[in-house]
Amino acid sequence: MLWPCSAGSCSQWAIDVTHTGFRNYFFDQIQALVDLGYTGIYFDADMRDITTFDGNGVVYPRDPSAPTTPLTLPKLRGQYNAWMNAIKARFPNLIIAHEAIWWSGNGTLLLFTYFFP
Q1: Rounded CA gap, 109 and 117, in Å?
Q2: SS (H, E, C) the chain
Q3: CA distance 101 to 96
Q4: pTM here?
Q5: What are the beta bridge partners of residue 100?
Q6: Which of 2, 30, 90, 102 has its CA 20 to 30 A from that of 56?
């Protein structure tokens, strides 16, 4: 994650949406919320870009399916889309909202919320 990172340390971590243990844990958490009557979930800082740092600079994550290979942006986006589709398949009536972070290309940060139908 891009922030807060400095002097070789970062306090935030990105998730591996392909990890079966993580997926099962997340599904259990969603089910617990649905059981309480919640009708939707919100993903904050939904970054569909490679923004990983080690506190000293940009590092490229390894592809979980091929650990010696860097994770490419198209593959990352494909994995994330598959993850969202898996959530939607498991919870078809759940409303999923995202806050996406995008850079405009001229250094301007754009934030917007969108819904995954």
Answers
A1: 25
A2: CCCCEECCEECCCCCCCCCHHHHHHHHHHHHHHHHCCCCEEEEEEECCCCCCECCCCECCCEECCEEEEECCHHHHHHHHHHHHHHHHHHCCCCEEEEEEEEECCCCCEEEEEEEEC
A3: 16
A4: 0.70
A5: 46, 112
A6: 102
